[in-house]
Amino acid sequence: VRINILQLLCNMKTHWDSIYYMICHLHYLHQPIDLFLDKPNNKDMKKYKLLPMQWNVLPDFKLILEILHQAIHTLSSECLPTLCKYLITFKKFYETWIRLGQD
Asked: Which domain of life is it from (predicted)?
């Protein structure tokens, strides 16, 4: 398996989007993680292997958190975001969130 080198990340209370990045890395490393946990010398870690259903819902969590990530990233990209920028970003976030709930 050839992949880019990524580090599995831990949740950080001071960075709300660390879970988003953690899920992105986990999703990308799905195959190598499973291969690693399936090796006989890693049988003590086999209990941490995600079930197929858990892998299947991971992209859903990623999508949910991506909406929040984009909204916060938009606001934090400016030195002095204005109230107007906040309202526009929140409206876009809210509309996307509602659309996601309907799908």
From this structure: Eukaryota
Does 79 map to a domain?
Answer: yes
* Contact present, 15 and 8 (Cβ < 8 Å): no
Is residue 88 assigned to a domain?
A: yes
Whether the model pTM is above 0.85: no
Q: Looking at the domain assignment, is residue 4 inside a domain?
A: no
Give the chain's domain count: 1
| Cα–Cα distances in angstroms (integers) from residue 72 to residues 21, 34, 96, in the given order | 14, 32, 14
Quick one: average pLDDT of 69-93? 77
Pair 36, 78: CB distance under 8 Å: no
35: pLDDT strictly greater than 70: yes
